[in-house]
Design brief:
With 189 residues, this protein is an alpha+beta fold. The chain has helices at 6-29, 166-170; strands at 42-57, 62-75, 83-95, 108-114, 119-131, 137-148, 154-161, 174-178, 181-187. 15% of the residues lie in helices and 50% in strands.
């Protein structure tokens, strides 16, 4: 697995963390006083994501099931959330080691379970994936909290997946990846 190193890697991590933090702070600053009792702020800049591919990815594009498990460390001024997790499955119609490790989503609903016994269900309706020169893939997903803590608020998730090990793709296939970066911000629209 390739991870960004040196000053370029640090700049990439700082840029993503800064963007997520900036989005959360803007949301807090523009929230009207009448935003309601369900207004919240959840900023999870530290997280991990494990993705298992069935069947394993090779060079031949094929329909693939992605079993995804996410863990987050968070901060929240209003809700008391300090950690959370989610587990979900995505069906990718055609993917391979040569195609983006993660396909852009058209729409998917994910329920995040928080340490304070609450949850937030997010319907991600927009997602983009971009491959960097170092082979990592940055996935940015945007959606709305449809139920639970923060209902009606904006959710933004940024995940950076590693450059796939092409030797593994040749020898039986790539069966799983662990994200380089995984962050989630929920805040007022």
């Amino acid at each position: 697995m390739h991870t960004p190193s040196g000053s370029a890697g640090r700049r990439q991590v700082l840029a993503i963390a800064g963007t997520a933090l900036g989005l959360s702070m803007i949301g807090l600053l523009v929230t009207p006083a009448s935003a309601g009792t369900n207004s919240t702020d959840i900023t999870c800049l530290t997280g991990s994501r494990n993705t298992v591919y069935t069947p394993p990815l090779t060079y031949a594009p094929t329909a693939t099931s992605l079993d995804i498990n996410e863990q987050f460390s968070c901060v929240s001024l209003l809700s008391g959330v300090s950690s959370g997790s989610a587990a979900f499955v995505v069906s990718a119609p055609s993917t391979s080691c040569l195609v983006s490790v993660q396909h852009p989503l058209t729409s998917i609903s994910v329920t995040y379970r928080w340490n304070n016994a609450s949850s937030s269900t997010v319907n991600f309706t927009s997602s983009t994936a971009a491959r960097a020169a170092d082979g990592t893939v940055t996935i940015t997903s945007i959606g709305t909290v449809t139920a639970g803590l923060g209902s009606g608020q904006l959710a933004t998730k940024v995940t950076v997946e590693p450059n796939p090990d092409l030797a593994v793709c040749l020898d039986g296939g790539l069966s799983e990846t662990n994200s380089v970066i995984n962050s989630l911000v929920i805040g007022p629209v």
